[in-house]
Write a structure and sequence with these properties.
about 50 residues, mainly alpha
Length: about 50
């Protein structure tokens, strides 16, 4: 999949998804989601550098 992104159109959008475990604590869930999102975006940027 990553090799297919090497020759991507620079205007192409990418959707990153993650599925959080169920929690009754909205604040904790939001904090975890922000943490996961930051780590996912950082990993994606390392794997598919912006040109």
């Amino acid at each position: 999949m990553l090799s297919a992104l090497v020759d991507r159109d620079p205007d192409m959008s990418v959707i990153l998804e993650h599925w959080l475990p169920h929690s009754d604590n909205l604040q904790a869930t939001r904090a975890q989601e922000h943490d996961w999102l930051n780590r996912t975006v950082a990993a994606a940027r390392r794997l598919v550098p912006l040109t």
